[in-house]
Amino acid sequence: MRRVAVTLDAFNVSIQALEQAVQLAERMGAQLEGIFVEDIDLIQIAGLPFLREVRSVSRSENVIDLARMEQELRVLARRAERLLSEQAARHNVVWSFRIWRGSIDNDLMAADIEADVFALTRMGAALTQGRLLGARSTAVSAVFTGTDASARALQAAIKLATDPDKELNILLPAEDVNEAARLQELATKQLGVEAARVHFIVMADGSLTDLMEILTDTNTAVLILERDNTLLHTPSLKRSLGNLNCPLLVVR
Question: Does the fold of domain 128-252 match that of domain 1-123?
Answer without folding.
Answer: yes
